[in-house]
Design goal:
The protein contains 18 helices and 2 strands. The protein is an all-alpha fold and about 450 residues long. A hairpin with a 2-residue loop joins β1 and β2. It starts with a helix and ends in an 8-residue tail after the last helix.
Length: about 450
């Protein structure tokens, strides 16, 4: 595959232009993206990625287009999993909701720069040393095993306390309060860093850790540096909008780690098979290649897409997934009701009450096992529901709007599950209320 210097320059300029457009028109003025805005721009970035695959198809052929699409889909799936960790970090630093997209865009920019450097290093190593395929394959197999071990252990893990964040907290002394989206502020007459700078460092450093998994994964699907770069770049573009679009769904993808473990394990085996085929290590088959079957890009793409589809469907429609949807939905509606301001329209109160009643009718279908597994504290959960129910009865009886409650963080955290356990470890609240302090959307 021959890629001219002109194509490289145009591609890099286009990606840099998209990032600059985001900085100038989307995050310069702090605001929380609405669902419609996030959906439109997520669709635009996904559309651009798919159109680029057609460009590869017409320019270099179906094989390379398949490699690009396989790489893009894999990197996008890994990025969605990374979004949950970003959520944990952002919530643990209590970043205001309207400033979160600036933090995310900085993290995406830093990730693109760091991963580009790693891509060229990896490409250079592969060109010089065929044994690197063994190393990359081993990294992916170990990562897959680590994901499975974490799921089987079923224990909370504090993603907001990795060593990058601990180092940043140790060496970067910041003020306790945010000053808008400023990186520095004046405190007691002295210029000091704000928590905004610290969280940006934490996001950027965590991005580098993610690259240690994602770069070997993409090289397991294509060794074309141009395709690796563009697949990684397009998977990162639009990640900011995707965060606001699916943040309510992240907690429902309860089997995503299993799906990613299968995909990374599959690519790891594919890499080792390729390494055996290209073998030049003297202690393996006397330095001669081993006659093993290699996995084609068609099979790779089928496995990756198939596993992701099954993972999402199982997460959303399995008994546990449906139970999590009902419990999470009921808790969110109840929280929204008890924190409604007194001047909230009566129609809004009745709509919330109707939605809660809809979820409540599904509660008997949830097994005791799933209740025990998904509810961190059933007492707090039912106390929240009781307060919401009592406020609505009072409103229906008297016509007077009750005063809103301030839901304590620990009291609001009734739902755990595979994802919310991690949130509690990081000291956050429910998905919709903890990401910046705003009230949860119904």
């Amino acid at each position: 595959m021959e890629v001219s210097l002109t194509v490289w320059i145009v591609t890099i300029a286009a990606i840099a232009g998209l990032l600059l457009f985001d900085y100038v028109f989307h995050v310069r003025k702090a605001h929380e993206p609405q669902l419609k805005e996030a959906a439109i721009w997520s669709g635009i970035y996904v559309g651009l990625a798919l159109l680029f695959g057609l460009f590869v198809l017409f320019r270099w052929g179906g094989t390379y287009a398949g490699e690009y699409y396989a790489g893009y889909i894999t990197e996008k799936a890994l990025s969605v999993d990374n979004l949950f960790v970003f959520l944990i970090i952002i919530a643990s630093f209590k970043v205001p909701r309207e400033d979160q997209q600036k933090v995310l865009l900085f993290g995406i920019t830093f990730a693109l720069i760091a991963r580009t450097a790693l891509i060229f290093v990896g490409a250079g190593l592969i060109n010089q040393f065929a044994w690197v395929f063994y190393l990359f394959g081993l990294i992916l197999l170990l990562t897959a095993g680590s994901l499975i071990k974490g799921e089987l252990a079923d224990s909370a893990h504090d993603e907001a306390d990795n060593f990058v964040i601990r180092l940043a907290k140790r060496f970067m002394h910041t003020s306790d309060e945010y000053d808008g989206d400023k990186l520095f502020t004046i405190e007691n007459g002295k210029k000091v860093m704000t928590p905004m700078l610290l969280v940006m460092v934490a996001i950027g450093g965590t991005d580098v850790l993610f690259a240690l998994d994602s770069i070997p994964a993409i090289f397991g699907l294509t060794q074309q540096t141009y395709l690796v770069f563009t697949a990684v770049a397009f998977s990162l573009m639009g990640l900011r909008q995707l965060y606001f679009l699916i943040d309510g769904l992240l907690d429902r993808l309860i089997y995503l780690s299993w799906g990613l473990a299968i995909i990374l394990g599959f690519i790891g085996i594919k890499l080792i098979l390729h390494a055996l085929h290209e073998n030049n290590l003297g202690f393996i088959n006397n330095g001669e290649h081993v006659d093993v079957a290699e996995v084609g890009i068609g099979l790779s793409l089928t496995v990756i897409v198939g596993v992701l589809v099954i993972t999402v469907l199982a997460s959303l429609y399995s008994p546990k997934g449906r139970a999590l949807r009902v419990l999470n939905g009921l808790q969110t509606v109840a929280e929204r009701y008890v924190t409604l301001p007194q001047d909230a329209p009566a129609d809004e109160r009745r709509k919330l009450a109707d939605k809660a009643a809809k979820y409540q009718r599904q509660m008997p279908k949830i097994s005791d096992r799933h209740r025990e597994e998904l509810l961190e504290s059933e007492k707090h959960f039912h106390d929240l529901l009781g307060r919401a129910r009592g406020k609505h009865r009072e409103f229906e009886r008297t016509g007077v709007a009750p005063e809103p409650d301030a839901v304590p963080a620990l009291e609001a955290e009734a739902l755990s599950g595979a994802r919310a356990e991690t949130q509690e470890a990081a000291g956050t609240t429910t998905p919709d209320t903890s990401r910046g302090g705003g009230s949860s959307a119904v």
